[in-house]
Amino acid sequence: MNALLIAIAAAAMVWCQPLLAAADPPPGAASCSGCHSPAATNSAIPRLYGRDAADIEKAMAGFRDGSLPATVMNRIAKGFTDEESRAIAAWLAAQK
Amino acid sequence: MGINHRLSRRDFCRSGAAAAAASALPLPAFAQSAPRVVVIGGGFGGASCARALKLFDPKLQVTLVEQSKTFIACPFSNNVIAGLRGIEEQQFGYDKVAAAGIAVAAQAATAVDGTARTVGLADGTSLSYDRLVLSPGVDLRFDVLQGYDEAAATKMPHAWKAGEQTLLLRKQLEAMDDGGLVVISAPANPYRCPPGPYERACLIAYYLKTKKPRSKLLILDAKDTFSKQRLFQNAWKELYPGMVEWVSLSQGGKVNAVDAASNTLITDFGNHTAKVANVIPPQRAGRIAMIAGAADNTGWCAIDPVTFESRSAPNIHVIGDACLAGGMPKSAFSANAQAKACARAVATLLSGGSPAAPKLINTCYSLAAPDYGISVAGVYQPKNGLLADVEGAGGVSPVDAPRDFRAREADYAQTWFATITAEVFG
């Protein structure tokens, strides 16, 4: 019985990772899925969940300073600091 | 089976191994002690909020109260009016919402007792809550424009709630002879979907230009400025020259009364008799907000910008078109973003925590033609008790953008609709 509980607890540790991340979106992060589908799609708007955090952060910086061309992301990225973008990128990267 | 499995799996994470081991067993006492959240209104705000609540804290008992079995979305309903889209593409059900572990009560909410914390339903039953979320959308006011009541709306459609009214306006446009006058009456702020009347003008003009090119479209407006104004005005000139005319408030555009029998719109400056009249009347928060004591004398609901809790009704949160969200416009995107921030705050409050200040985004696309999209975006955060624009962010599409930019935004508009409706109803 004890062995079973330990096994369940260990499994819970593994299960918890993405779920705890899902529970704690940093400011702004929960809005992204309004346009960026959490599901894999072949749409014009890229999926962000599970992407490399550094890539997302770099893209946000590029949208913000205008070095990366955009239709609307330039206008949105300007509303977030480097630090906020980093937190959002890390959260998006941790989503499945 | 899938739901039970997920619930027990997530309880595990929340409460540690011991509680998780217990929750894997059927213990009704545990379920009864779970905090109860009732969400009224199954649109982009309410359905999103119910799902986000369950996602953030699976042990919450969440009930969504929505009288309609089918939701009919307003975004893209102007395409239906213009004959570019079928109404069935606007329709969504609640099966997936229910499958996410949310109790769906297909009833009208008729009463709220803020002291007893109960919601009364049309069938006489009631639901208890620890926290209540109202996302009732808007009610159209049939007591402001003289002569414009519900009966008049069957002759002069508002089409500001998607469904029968959308199809009625579509039918009237189809039946109109070439050379007819279409009049749109636009209300003063605030109202649902600020760029909506002007997108509608564009897409009706697109239909007229294609099928009835001698026709004219007149917009009678109760204001002097409007959302994405330069972009729309440029599009009218560029795409529909000589067809669309906008009459501002100061030019006498404000409609005070209508005569449904003769299809006439009456302003201080004169009468306009239309072949097709689309009267978009002033609006206020959906009725249940009034009943709950959450609406103020403007008809809308003042809220705390961190928690979305009503300024006047404790334990009641208001999101979407019904709330006064400072700089955030009344859009589906806003409602969805607010829903998630509100769900986070409600889950935090129910677990005894204090919610962190959110940051919210809005993006609104409008179509000036099927391949010509324009947008407005904004980023918002609590400031001085309101949701204020983050300075330096947001704004509208560039005025001088080339047509391929407009085509891309039109494409993004379609993708946005598919994505958001999948998140809320899929």
Please write out the topology.
The complex is a heterodimer of chains A (96) and B (426).
Chain A: H1 2-23, H2 53-65, H3 73-77, H4 82-94
Chain B: H1 2-23, H2 28-32, E1 36-40, H3 44-56, E2 61-65, E3 70-72, H4 77-81, E4 91-93, H5 95-99, E5 103-105, E6 109-113, E7 118-121, E8 126-128, E9 131-134, E10 138-140, H6 164-175, E11 181-186, H7 196-211, E12 216-221, H8 229-239, E13 244-247, E14 255-259, E15 264-267, E16 270-273, E17 276-279, E18 283-285, H9 287-291, E19 301-302, E20 316-318, E21 323-324, H10 332-350, E22 360-369, E23 372-383, E24 386-389, E25 395-396, H11 403-425
Parallel strand pairs in B: 1-2, 1-9, 2-5, 9-20, 11-12, 11-17, 12-13, 19-21
Antiparallel strand pairs in B: 3-4, 6-7, 7-8, 10-18, 14-15, 15-16, 22-23, 23-24, 23-25
Mean of pLDDT of chain A: 82
CATH architecture descriptor of the largest domain in chain B:
3-Layer(bba) Sandwich
Poorly predicted runs of 5 or more residues of chain A: 3-22
Number of domains of chain B: 2
Strand content of chain A: under 5%
**Secondary-structure-derived class of chain B:** alpha/beta
Shape of chain B: globular
Q: Averaged pLDDT of chain B, please?
A: 93
Number of extended strands of chain B: 25
User: What is the CATH topology assignment of the largest domain in chain B?
Assistant: FAD/NAD(P)-binding domain
What is the terminal separation of chain B in angstroms? 19 Å
Radius of gyration of chain B: 23 Å
β-strand amount of chain B:
25-35%
- Silhouette of chain A: globular
Separation of termini of chain A? 32 Å
Number of helices of chain B: 11
